[in-house]
Structure formats: C-alpha cells, structure tokens
Amino acid sequence: MLWKLTQNVLTTVVVLYTGIHWGIASVPGVYIVLNIFQSTVSHSNFERSLYIGISIGLAYVLWMLSTILLTALLSYVFKPSIGSIRVPFLSALTIRWGFLNVLDRLAKPCIHHMVPSWITDFYYRALGCKIGKGAFVSSDRINDPYLVSIGKNAIIGSKVIITPHLAERDDLVFSPIEIGNNCLIGLKIFFIIFLRKPKFPREYLRFFEL
Questions:
Q1: Helix 45-78 to helix 118-126 angle, to the nearest 10 degrees?
Q2: What is the pLDDT of residues 117-166, one digit of tens each?
Q3: How far is 168 from 206, CA to CA, in rounded Å?
Q4: Domain total for the chain?
Q5: Is the dihedral of CA 76, 183, 208, 140 positive or negative?
C-alpha cells in the first residue's frame, strides 16, 4: 500500500516536471520563431509562410538538441556510482534511479532521431556510459548507461535493448553490463541480467531476439 501511494505521488510530480523540462528546452526555438514572426510582418503571405515554416522546423531541431543537452547535464550531476547491488524498492537509491530514468525517457524521443551520431555518443557518455574508441552505437534503448561499458570498435545495432537492472520480489537489482572489444550486437537484440542469488556469486547474461 505504501509503495502504491508513493508511486502515485511520484507519478504526479513526474508529469508536472515533464512539462517544465520540455518547456525549458523549447525556449531557444520559440525565441527564433517569435523573432521571425515579428520581422516578416511586411512580407507577402508566401514569404512569411516560408520563413515561419523553416523557423518552426529549426525550432523543433533545437528543442531536441536542447532536451538532450539539458537531460545530459542533469543526469551527469545526479547519476549514482553503483555496481552490483540489491536494494529495496522504497530506498533513496531507487528514488534517485527513478528520477534518472524519468530524465532519460524525456530525452529518448530525441535520441531516436539522432542515432547514430556524435550527439548520442556525447549523451550516453554524459550519463556515465563508457564507449571505447571506434565504437558504433546505433541504439536509442540503452537503459542505465552508467552501468554499461562498450569496448573499442564494438557495434551496437539498431533497436538493441540493454537493461542492467531487474525487479525481483520487493527489491531492485543492478548489475553492470560489459560489452567487449570488436563485438557485434545485431538488430533488435535484448540484453538483461538475471541474478540467481542475492550475493551475486555468479551472473547470467541471456540474449533474446525480439
């Protein structure tokens, strides 16, 4: 009951914060559109439509870039330094993890349009993901990047899902995922960690093709 109440309260906070986060990210684009709108008053309707249309397109791109940058900066500040660990759902660490997940989800629609690029490499690195030299990351679905390490010259295919956490009874379980050098992970592969015992004597990495 306490967990359900906490979830409802946090969900309400998240919904309100989403509007603020995306609103702040939209400021540069809105500024450009307003300036174009005001400076083209004396132009013909066709010219105004052309200039305003282009400014709206640029505003959308700026919104995506601003969302990525804002999310990266906040995540860089708040990302936890954890390894293999098991914690209760109601704990300070899981609340912090949940907040980072919210931030990541706010940026995911933008990351989707940017992969693969230096922009998404910057984003994942800011969130704590280790990406080796020459690695090629084409997925927008890397969860908990601060628990993921990608080796040199590795290739992560499109729509690959990497998830270094799972819910087990009343606990949240974390375990880092390391992808070695020169690895190729094909299209739509699903990584998830399955831990059989709470003291982590052994890790099982299973692969699922969607």
A1: 30
A2: 999 999 999 999 999 999 999 999 999 999 999 999 999 999 899 999 88
A3: 16
A4: 1
A5: positive
Tokens of 163: 């998830």
Pairing of the two strands 148-150 and 165-168 = unpaired
Encode pLDDT of 27-86 as tens digits: 999 999 999 999 999 999 999 999 999 999 999 999 999 999 999 999 998 888 888 888
* Pair 152, 180: CB distance under 8 Å: no
Smallest CA-to-CA distance from 123 within 199, 192, 72, 67 is with 72
**Which residues have a Cβ under 8 Å from the Cβ of 61 and sit 6 or more positions away?**
29
DSSP for 174-189, please give it: E--EEE-TT-EE-TTE
Which residues have C-beta within 8 Å of that of residue 37, sequence separation ≥ 6? 52, 55
d(CA 94, CA 88): 8
- Let me know: does 114 contact 108? Beta carbons within 8 Å: no
Region of residue 95 (left: phi > 0; alpha: psi -120 to 50; beta: else): alpha
What's the whole-model pTM score? 0.83
Residue-number span of the structural domain to which 79 is assigned: 2-209
Alpha helices for the chain (secondary structure H) = 2-25, 27-39, 45-78, 92-114, 118-126
